[in-house]
Design goal:
Largest interface: A-D, 40 and 40 residues
Distance between the termini of chain A: 48 Å
Helix content of chain A: 25-40%
Largest sheet of chain A: 7 strands, mixed
Number of domains of chain A: 2
CATH architecture of the largest domain in chain A: 2-Layer Sandwich
CATH topology of the largest domain in chain A: Dihydrodipicolinate Reductase, domain 2
Structural class of chain A: alpha/beta
Oligomer: homotetramer
Order of helices and strands of chain A: EHEHEHEHEHEHEHHEHEEEEEEHHEHE
CATH class of the largest domain in chain A: Alpha Beta
Strand content of chain A: 25-35%
Number of helices of chain A: 12
Strand order of the largest sheet of chain A: 3-2-1-4-5-6-15
Chain lengths: 331, 331, 331, 331
């Protein structure tokens, strides 16, 4: 019979709510504690999931808690990872590990010392379409990979207050795409070049950030990757990847709500892309939790590791540095 | 606070298992009893869903059972509907209501007498794409509807033993499409013409049935509907509808597992259609249960009624009669 | 060195103009005479193509004329075919051969007697997409063909005066689809069933014709074909064929002017189908002329024969008879 | 009545043959002379087009020649442009103007001095799909343009001997995409960054060139453009453009030979992209000749100018310099 693994959830916002629902519905998991500085949000979420509201200390002290799920704001990630590791808990942490590479490395050292499992929430690796891309690449369907093109656009720009705390587009948004690039290239990028502009929302420019960016990665063996990000997109959450290789192309397109198409004098109209990550990556969030629970059971699991988190942060930092300096950055 | 409605499930086969899982996961439902002549299947399903194995009498006698879900073989539907109605239970019954129209009418009379809710499991009405077709038609997006074309193909032919008990392609398979036609035309067909052949599996022909069929429906106002069915399809479960009207076309295409596409010298290849109804109509089965539970709560719900079941059976019978006689049948 | 085959063109209307331009541009053809009761139209077309305006007798008497191209109104076809044959000219005639089957047979007898080439202008056989369908079927790509579905919709209804002279939807419009069915099924239909309505233009109904129709064909071996026709279509000239067989599906979709797609909040919009036959079948008209000129040179050529014209007319007549009588017609 | 403009064609290779056929078929043009160092090629082409073989001096001395069409090898462009201009001929020259910017500028000075028309053969501007993109951008359909993504891949790598003379991927191949970027951005790029590798054919690397490249352009106002080129593509000639803006996306996809699709267990397969430029840009070559002939008649015409040729060359040179130096180049 299955043991249900006990979880404490940190963060009762949008992503915390997804994880709470997925934990509540999972046969192998029990959500025990919800921790959030916003007591109302914590209380409401705990109630709907049969969990209780706790503070960090209480949640970490509970021996029934096997794992913590960190979905709180970025600036709390490092402290929670370290505290969780020291309490001997397995850790699932939303990206990014940290905004600061030294801090990230220190956290990983604590995790290594404690010998606990740490998985990063690079949810896109668990999207059924991108997983299939990965498997097809591995199976050689595209031949040797030469160029990867990643398009990633959010539906609407974040509020200025969020931008200020976000670490900037590269660490906050493109970090997902940088992780996809590493994962699909199966080789580390050796140089990063970034260009970016504030074309969408002047407030983003005023905050010192960009809302539109293009990045070029090159690996040691000369493989190339293009990434483009925009903070606003009229036709939904634009999430596409193309992998070009010696034998052809593999690509994953956007996902519509349904396959319904209408036709009239203006032409044939299919539905826009799903609105945002909650919809597009619903299956991905379930799949990543499945994999994490496999790992808790000691079974082989495909997870993004703490080191994956550190590497993606290095790339994001290099992209920011390239944008600031105007030249490519060698890693 | 929500009351959880208690259910007894009849039939632990493929469709019974879908409903059991959906009942188990639903916040407003509790699966209490599983009834099946195959004790093993019943036991296994009951165990995974926290229900108990019962016989019909015990299940219907349990006052905690508010509703029965009939997913057992077609020849048991009539008796279970009548017994459930007489026990005062709400009834959700898989199609068809009956293979015999007199029997169907007698069942409806018992249900009417008992004043209980009866919903038919025309699952396609709850598919997100077909629901959207329905709403768009109602909103006038295609203008006045003139011609509907329904393509419906199973991936592999059923075993001969199943064919013998099935009532034939029209009552067993096309009945779904006939219901879709009625639902989307929003007008009753007045004539039915059918042609069919056993082109796929000679055993189906030997059993007196067809595996390939084409039907034409015409309504009193002259609107037309084409339906084609095949009992085998190389590219998955082919489920498509096109609605042609004065303002243009609305159509729902097949659903692939993912949007991944590969390209090589042979061209651009998208994934085949989802394999069969379990995958294609997973959301539809959840949605129809949602609607049934709404109705149990007394909320407005969109359900296929017993009368819808009777009308679809009339059309299926007429199609069979047309096939047998070679001439169109007027209803 | 190539001999240029001399042509006389009968009919300076829309289709005559296409043929005139294709003849003028063809390395192996010379357009010598244009004959039309409308002297202006004939004069204008002759001028742009370097031909002269003639009457029928003069055109047929010219020994430099090797072939006649009959693109005049349907009621003139029989007389021109017979006169052309008796003058020893090869004949390319637009569909239909005749509106009357006895007349058609008499014309074919004259042609046979004269021993001249007669080709019917079933232009769709020469469309690159439909030709590829044909070749792929022949190559077994779909396996044994079981069901063919043909969708054919004109952009706008013809004027009432045209309808009155047209012979009705089946002989005027669906005859093309009936020919496609014969060609792609590679087996003669044995029964024809038709339903139709005047849903689009009441004037068409007043003229005793239908503007919306569905036909079912069945061959002796039980293969089925569905055809639907509409006389008005909001999204262009809808010309699609699906061929379903043991190994899968082959289909030819509509052709847009370009591949441009736009995306916004309403979704992803591709261009409508090309407006009408002039655009959609531009290549087909060139290809059929090529084949006719091959035949004139004595080379193997793929042409629709007079017999193909007669067979298609038989099917169209049967469809009309089925519509009128309400029952399927056995051929 | 139309005056037919007399042409001398320089170069009887693949592109020269396209232009020869288009000139021969055009109502407003007469091809008088074909000039090529390969006498056989010149003779054969001249024969099929009713022209005569000439040398440069004779062709330019012929007062019946109003325009020259330069489709000979790149190293001859400058001399022919200058000689043509000095002879008072209008000039249509294939890209690139020159491999050397000083040479290009000197040629433009001669043309300006002579006051003759010079048009560059940036054929993609005349492709129906890209023209529609251009018009839709101008009409504001995508809103303010923010990011353009251009994918351009040749089917097979050129022979090493060609690579050596070609000026390199940026001047030989990407120059088309750089022109498209300028044309669609409607603003000059201010910086160019390039990365490239020889991943496809080691002989290309040995020749000091790359076969796979990615370029980022940024305009003064911060708009971005990504371009990727590959010298080999398994699925045909990959020619796609995406324009992302405030109101959504406009894109032009590849063009298949037909719309035929087949489906089987492996999924739904559409045709590959047309094989190469002869097929993909057949209409573009006709359209650009039309525009050039309009200009010869003094009518308003949309042409790529000598200055467009110079600007594209500047961008290609900057891309090469960026590749060589590893840093972005400011223009």
């Amino acid at each position: 019979m299955n043991v249900k693994h006990g979880f404490a959830l940190f963060g009762a916002g949008r992503i915390g709510q997804i994880h709470a629902r997925n934990l509540a519905a999972h046969a192998d998991a029990r959500l025990l504690h919800v921790v959030d500085v916003a007591a109302d949000a914590a209380g409401q979420l705990a109630a709907t999931c049969g969990a209780r509201v706790s503070d960090t200390a209480a949640a970490l002290a509970d021996p029934a808690v096997h794992a913590i799920l960190v979905a709180s704001s970025t600036d709390t990630h490092a402290a929670l990872i370290r505290a969780g590791a020291q309490a001997g808990k397995a850790i699932f942490c939303e990206k990014p590990l940290d905004l600061d590479i030294a801090g990230a490395q220190a956290s990983l050292a604590v995790v290594a010392q404690a010998g606990v499992l740490l998985a990063l929430g690079f949810n896109r690796r668990f999207d059924p379409a991108f997983r299939r891309l990965y498997r097809e690449i591995a199976a050689g369907r595209a031949g040797k990979v030469e160029v990867i093109s990643i398009t990633s656009r959010d539906p609407t720009p974040p509020p200025p207050a969020y931008v200020a705390r976000s670490g900037g587009l590269f660490r906050d948004m493109m970090i997902h795409d940088l992780d996809m690039a590493r994962w699909l290239l199966a080789e580390e990028p050796a140089t990063v070049f970034a260009r970016g502009s504030a074309l969408i929302d002047p407030a983003i420019g005023d905050a010192g950030d960009v809302d539109t960016a293009v990045v070029v990665l090159e690996t040691a063996s000369g493989r190339l990757c293009q990434i483009t990000n925009s903070r606003r997109c009229a036709y939904g959450y634009d999430q596409r990847i193309e992998v070009f290789g010696a034998k052809g192309l593999l690509r994953a397109d956007n996902v519509p709500a349904t396959t319904v198409e209408s036709a009239g004098a203006e032409g044939f109209t299919r539905e826009p892309a799903l609105p945002f990550f909650l919809e597009r990556y619903a299956a991905a969030y379930r799949n990543e939790l499945d994999e994490f629970l496999k790992a808790l059971r000691g079974a082989p699991a495909q997870l993004a590791s703490g080191e994956d988190g550190r590497r993606a942060l290095l790339l994001a930092n290099a992209a920011q540095e390239s944008l600031d300096s105007g030249v490519p950055i060698r890693l």
